[in-house]
From TrEMBL:
Species: Clostridium cadaveris
Self-association state and partner proteins as the record states: Homodimer.
Full protein name: dITP/XTP pyrophosphatase
Gene3D superfamilies recorded: 3.90.950.10
UniProt-listed GO biological process terms: nucleotide metabolic process; purine nucleoside triphosphate catabolic process
Organism placement in taxonomy: Bacteria, Bacillati, Bacillota, Clostridia, Eubacteriales
Chain sites annotated for binding Mg(2+): 41, 76
Keywords of the record: Hydrolase, Magnesium, Metal-binding, Nucleotide metabolism, Nucleotide-binding
The keyword Kinase is annotated on this UniProt entry: no
Pfam short name (any one): Ham1p_like
Annotated residues for binding of substrate: 8-13, 77, 159-162, 182, 187-188
Enzyme Commission number(s) of this protein: 3.6.1.66
Obligatory cofactor(s): Mg(2+)
Amino acid sequence: MKKIIVASNNKHKIQEIEAILKDIDIEVVSLKDEGIFIEVEEDGTTFKENSYKKAKEIYDYLISKKYDNFIVMADDSGISVDALNGEPGVYSARYAGEPSDSDKNNEKLLENLKDIPWENRGGSFICHITLIDDNGISYDAEGVVRGIVTTELRGRDGFGYDPLFYIEKYKKTFGEIDSYEKNKISHRSLALGKVREIVQSIK
């Protein structure tokens, strides 16, 4: 069985990936599961640059350790708000500074939008995924979902900016939508839908 080594230890992210790829004959593992303790500096200016850098560093390590029959998966994702010229963007995870703190990030985003009316609070959740197979071939997949940044936190599900990201079709934030529904419409699920096709094409 081929193994997908996800360049992350975020348990929420791993669970989401496992749920969406569950019917494919492939094992999904985190870096910690593989005993890999590498922190890749995300200093790119785009989601694509960051995801590729993470995937390539892990790929190089695995090749140096003589791994085979694997696919490295890395992603970079975040929220891009129209009224803030695309902020937080690639700085979404550390918007309020280091170390990363979701509560403080949400507080800062709300503060920066406090005078912005509802109709101008649109934004996108973006997820860019890079895959590199054991032959060194890289693949890209991206998912984008539009929404509105609310004026207060709503819901306890999800993580990150989910309680602020309102989906008009559902009249709920990602923090209020259950995981089953979210896994059908989220930016990561849209990107992973493309990943499914890529993984199934890799021999």
